[in-house]
Amino acid sequence: MIDIGAGGPFRVSARARVAIALAASALAASALGACGSSSSSSGAGGGSGSGTAAAGPHSRPAPRRVPALALPPNPRPRSVRVPILTYHRVHVYATELTKSTPDLTVEPTVFAAEVAALDRRGYHAIGQGQLYAALFEGRPLPPKPVLISVDDGYVDGLKEILPVLRRHHMVATFYIITGRFHEPGFLTAGQVRQLDGAGMDIGAHTRTHVSLPALSGAALTSQVAGSRRDLERVLGHPVDYFAYPYGAVDANVIASVRRAGFVLAVTTQGGTRESSLAPLTMPRIHVGRAMTPASVLAAVAG
User: For residues 147 and 65, what is the distance between their CA atoms, to the nearest angstrom?
Assistant: First the structure.
């Protein structure tokens, strides 16, 4: 079923968006394969890689069309119950080259089981645009909505998380630390584009993951507005979503996030209700290493 969401009467639901992205990927792969076959049959010494090389190893896909959003100056008070799950790493902890805080790493088999449990229980993973439309336009959400978020921009997002989401036709929001594009273990700019092209939402998580209340002036602007600019250059479309490092936030930081043009921002404060009157301090549910499919279901059920 196609749900109506923000951005006009033909905006599709997050689940449909992922299905469309999957179909587009399959068509692109088919076309690329056909080009490769033609190239190898007509050129001397050509192989299966000839078609790929013709496309260029660093070719960039066309930017995904994402509507520009803005916070209304006087929003109508609305509240919706949307549990936002927070993940960080999905990786075999024993094999991590750089050890994270143990509670931030969920084993891949556990993550797959948690997503499968949500799917079986009828939860619908929604996108940020759907949440925005529900809060500010009164648009309906699908039954049992849940929003999956992934912080920090580890390469696990592409290698471990995306395949599971695709299997269940779900979407997630990936909050990216833009200063880590070239660090081992983190997503590159090209890999962030791959997530975006797969129908995932991309949000900013500052440039260097610093505690924002400790900053002011140009330093704060660089971390907040600068990370948005970084991602918009990478993706070629607006980036409207933000996550506060460590959940650290105060009035000055919120004002900076608002000035930067973000419309939805998440904290680490626990809760499941999102409000049009507090869109820049939305609560989430931390999914730690000790959680199981059953405890995730209990958390989202409240």
Answer: 21
Q: How far is 249 from 281, CA to CA, in rounded Å?
A: 8
For residue 113, report the phi and psi dihedrals to the nearest 5 degrees.
-70, -35
Which of 14, 15, 22 lies closest to 198, judged by CA? 22
Contact at 8 Å (CB) between 205 and 151?
Answer: yes
At which residue do the structure tokens 């939805």 appear?
A: 264
Q: Flag whether 88 is in a domain.
A: yes
Burial class (CB in 10 A: 0-12, 13-18, 19+), 278: middle
pTM above 0.85, yes or no: no
CATH number at residue 260: 3.20.20.370
Q: Which of 277, 264, 269, 272 is nearest to 132 (CA)?
A: 264
Query: Per-residue pLDDT tens for 169-194?
Result: 999 999 999 999 999 999 999 999 99
pLDDT at 33 over 80: no
Domain count, the chain: 1
Give domain status of residue 166, yes or no.
yes
CA distance 8 to 133: 10
Which tokens is 40 given? 């190898």
Q: Are 171 and 110 in contact (CB under 8 A)?
A: no
- Integer angstrom CA distances of residue 96 from 54, 89, 146: 36, 10, 29
- Total length of the chain: 302
Contact predicate 128/196, CB 8 Å: no
* 238's tokens: 């607006």
Residue 271 lies in a domain: yes
Domain of 227, in residue numbers: 81-301
